[in-house]
User: Fold SDR family oxidoreductase from Streptomyces chiangmaiensis.
Amino acid sequence: MARNVVISGGGTGIGLAAARAFASDGDRVLLLGRRPEVLEKAELPGALTYAADLSDPHAVRGVARFVADELGTVDVLVNSAGGAGNPEPAADTEDRLDAVAHAWTVNFRLNVLTATLLTEALRDRLASPGGRVLFLSSIAAYRGSGSGAYAASKAALHPYAFDLARELGPRGITVNVVAPGYVEDTEIFGEAMDPARRRRLIAETSTGRAGTPGDIAETLHWLASHGAGHITAQVIQVNGGAEHGH
Assistant:
């Protein structure tokens, strides 16, 4: 039976790969993102699209109304929207503290508010039983990200997911987190990566290769399956062994 699947950040990278995986099952997919032109280029036949800034409560209310009108029930919610600040404008300041405040605010807005606002707006529409809520974290949540802001914003999703799993469990809804390592063909790193850094990240893996959006999409797809119905409040690392399980 076809399911209703809502995917934020669905126009590119992991979100789009996940959308294709669900659509291949015949599921009805709604792609959410900030940039309408990107959603239009997604080329996913039959998919619905809705452009909104998911860190804005007013915009998320619009998403909730659209979902109510077009889908009704949400079987799977994939929170894939986020980023490390690209392509956000840099802080227009030379003051170090102002720059720090800007970086941390941007990262928490992109990675935490987008996920929590959308989830809270749609939680009463989640299928009961059988609903699935999925969040995209990062290997950075375990080992840092250089500046700290991106890593901290991804790590903040973990306790939120654990609390949500406890609250929604009685309704037969599972909540899980997927934490990718280095994944190529996404916008997370902005412009082309320095070749030396790319080699270093690949060398950290046991598989000897970079991850792909498809690797992460298949994990999300499995966690949303009937077979994963007794898995909840977990963080699944998908990084080729670059970071061991915890």
